[in-house]
Amino acid sequence: MSHKPIKILKTRILRHRFINAKGHRIDIDTVIAHIIMLYGNIQALTGRTPIRFFEGLQKFCPCGSFASDEELWKEMEGALYESVPEAVRRLLRRRMPPATPYTFTHGDLSYGNIMVKDGSVTGIIDWETAAYMPVWCESLCVSFSGCEEDEEWRMLLRNYMLDYDAAYNFWHQYHYLCLDPNIWGKHFIDEAEREARKPISRDELFAYTNGRFLVNEEYQLARRYAKFDLNALCSVAAAVGDVPSPVASVSKLEGGFSKALLMRKENGSEVVAKIPCRIAGPAGLTTASEVGVLEYLRRNATIPVPRVLSWSSDRGNSVGSEYIVMEKASGVPLFRVWGDMTEFEKLQLIQNLTKLEAQLSAIRFPAYGGLYLRDHLQNSGHRCLQLDDHVDPSQSFCIGPSPDRQFDVQSDHLKDQGPWTTLPELGIFIAKRELSRISTIPNNSAMFYRGTLEEQAQLLDFTIRLMPMLDSHPLLGQSAQPTLWHTDLHMGNIYVAPDDRTRIVSVIDFQSISVMPLFLQSRWPEFLKPPENYTQGFTSPELPDGYDNMDDENKLLARREWSQAKLAKAYEVATYLENRPAHIARNVPRVFRELFTRCGEVSEVGVIPLRACLMEIFQNWSNLGFTGSSPYSFTEEEIQTHERQFAEYQAWHRVQHLAQECLDTDAEGWISPELDIKEKRRQNRELLAMFIERMAGEKSPEEARQMWPFPDDA
């Protein structure tokens, strides 16, 4: 960044503090105008992420850097008093104004820090707390004062700044909720709880209300719309439990693939009802498999999961939808307490988590697919394989079709969605599924290069030829063992004991979980993923070379990355000690995992990723442990053509990542309900215009627009 404005302000010249100049004749308006001019120079320094936030306003001081408003909020939320209810937290997040563009902020423009001479401002001092902060921060800081005279000065100064009343109201509420809310924040909590209790219409209950979409919004909302008979569902919920009791209230808790309803009964007990949306997965199988997994773990493992109280996978029931009614998860969500846990507590929790995962690795299922209650699946007409006695002593369960959304196919000749008894069977099914899809999916104009239908079919045919050679591959071995695994372990799905935050008391959300090869299942949990440039193996993470010579912001970034690397290393080592099969599976050569992943996404992302994978296998055939000759080949000309296209594909992929990161969204264009969709759409238009301008020398406006993931007419 340019330091010119800062140098101007810090020039050492003869001056008086404004606080000591009260006896002199000073034109206050002139001083304020000069301050606002200098303030504008400082505000021109934008575009970085904040490295400190509101230091000095109160004792809870989140620090960064933060890549998005969501990261900033997560840090701020950690300072809230523990007893602040979830509904209050959600309302407060909605009221937090957008922080971008982050601007360089002094943070304390009190009259004691303003230097004057001969009636003019000659400098501003005390930059110790200056940093990149939210755009509204300087105006907010001016709103707080320590004495009556300073308050008068700040009120005058604020009149000349942009109006950020929303930020002031938000911060006022946030500040008091960081203190004991029973003393200071009771009024806001009462207000938030009244809003949370505000009745919603039936259609709002059925509709998706947990966010908006930058593109294809009507389609995305329709996929997440789920209509059902609420009265019938309440009757089901009222009848379950130790003592039947009518439902007194219903609170909507929504996820991306299902509706979750917290039902409070008149006797004080609570249950959770779960209604899958159309996007969740194969009809009937989605609910039946989740029930099968929960029941199997409850009976045959010590992994704590909610108890199923009632369920139906038949949409023809009285509720008019598939549903599960289950116990409310005990404990508190891990994300609530993670920020307050000591490093030792985090290490203990990681070890306990790997012990639970080790139970999953130890269960030897006979095939790949979904886990179901045997009686239910046999009566539904699906093919199923029973489990061995030592895996299922009661003979109550079986392996059947996969409930994974990716296996929900409509093709007449691909009705068999599992189970699959060998790795080649599974891989060949995935490739054939893509062959059936590519002929029906229209070309995506936003895709940079998809390949012709002939190219796609040829690569999938190469994959089908290769799959049989994996059956006895020496590098796979036991890592291909059919394994049940929770593939979405984030801090919202793990609950811990309030009095012992290292003890996991509930794991939730097993929807669409399948039994798959261990080398495709084993992964870092979301919150323990290693940073870039992470080195696997028994090497201790260290701060980067040259750390001592970094500026404060880069030091902060380096320490955050180091801290995350230490957590990832703790998980890696704990997995090695507690769950050796998963450790070995995670170290299977990357290209084997990519073979299954890339061949399964040809219909969505085109030929280049799969072709890169197949070429890597072809070029490293012997080194990867294959014997004999490859069942396919590429000419030197094809390899050179691919390398050019792959470089362009990487550029396209970087654009997708950049747009998603800048807009706080994902590949579908999802925008958090706490963010302003109109503001995000405005930002999207501005970013697209900037991208088109920057690419002017390389791409036409239309070509640049096609590389952008979110059309500007969204």
From TrEMBL:
One of its GO terms (cellular component) is mitochondrion. Gene3D superfamilies: 3.90.1200.10. It comes from Aspergillus tubingensis. Its main location: mitochondrion. It is found in: Mitochondrion. Keywords: Mitochondrion, Transit peptide. It comes from the Eukaryota. Residues 82-154, 251-517 form the Aminoglycoside phosphotransferase domain. Belongs to the AIM9 family. This is Altered inheritance of mitochondria protein 9, mitochondrial.
